Amino acid sequence: MTRQAIVVGGGIGGLAAALALQRIGWQTIVLERAPQPGEIGAGMSQAPNAMRALAELGVEDQARAAGVPTYASSNLRTPDGRYLQRARPGDATPLLGFHRADLRRVLLNAVPAGCVRTNAEVTAVRQDAGSATVGFGGDKLTADLVIAADGIRSTVRRLLWPDAPPPRFLGRTAWLGIAEVPGLPGSITLGPGAFFLIHPVARGRAYWAYIIPAHHPGIRYEREKAEVFRRIGDWHDPIPALIEATPPEDVIHIDIHDLDPLPTYVRGRVALLGDAAHAMSPDRGQGAGQSIEDAVVLAAALAGEPTIEGALRRYDAERRPRTQATVRGARKDGHRTNRTSRAVYRALVTLLRMVPAPLWRKGLAADGNATWRWRPPSLPSPPDGH
């Protein structure tokens, strides 16, 4: 008998979960509350660990065609344009830069047509010994398993983990944008308590993010683009040009939160995945990548264990230590760059300049750090051979 799953959330994590379960022979329905689902955040990068997971899902080639190599991790600069570290041809591992919508489209095109239902806001989850039922928009569905991939403010987590703490504000805010500026290699510019990130993305565009400290969430400006330019319009090229080339209505302003660790990602026949389980700051570029990893590990556990309960225990045991360590590491990295003291900033810049180039390149190799070194479990071949 074919197993069935309901995936709550039609973003990158939810679609990766649907695709992973499809590959082990499960049927899935994805419930997405938005009428026309998209991806907030404009851009991102994927590291070697996520690309290996996408390969296991059978969409690596499509993802590489949708992404653009970015050397942001290897090109560190100061606001006056000087390089602290610089990528040289052939000696740095590029990440892949994406517009979030482009990677989501790769996954959407790979799942069965019609498996995503929009305008389906989940309002209830109930379970018994053999199934789980999800209520949404006056309708309901019952399946063997529910996967909650509904983001940092997950409804499913709130319903089934009522004692879990809410998202934690990390004392930082970010402006994000996409500009039609082609040919940039990617870079990170470090200022006192702030940084400016550039990733190239498809179709001759560049994604940028400017992150600074904030005393509390919710601070907004009437003209967000002008506020960014006021702050860093004198930083090195191409930063002013990127801001200027971004349409004002396309500048996104968000506050940065993460989640404190949960004691379990599993409750009965419900599993949390991605930001619903372990939302993290963007400082290690791992948010979406960890959700794709989750999807592969969950599917491998379901394929390899005789019971759903056993598979969910295995998923929880494998994913919680790694993802929660990544959350802690990203939070720590963010705290380091959030410090506005000029003395601390000068010390950081001096330290980065002193790192020997071979050591820097070694740390940015495809296997150069514990996060990137991860290998996915193998999934069975798809039932239809594709």
From TrEMBL:
Native source species? Streptosporangium fragile
Q: Mind telling me what this protein is named?
A: FAD-dependent monooxygenase
Q: Which UniProt keywords apply?
A: Monooxygenase, Oxidoreductase
Pfam families in the cross-refs: FAD_binding_3
FAD-binding domain span: 4-329
Q: Fetch the PANTHER family from UniProt.
A: MONOOXYGENASE, PUTATIVE (AFU_ORTHOLOGUE AFUA_6G14510)-RELATED
Record GO terms (molecular function):
monooxygenase activity
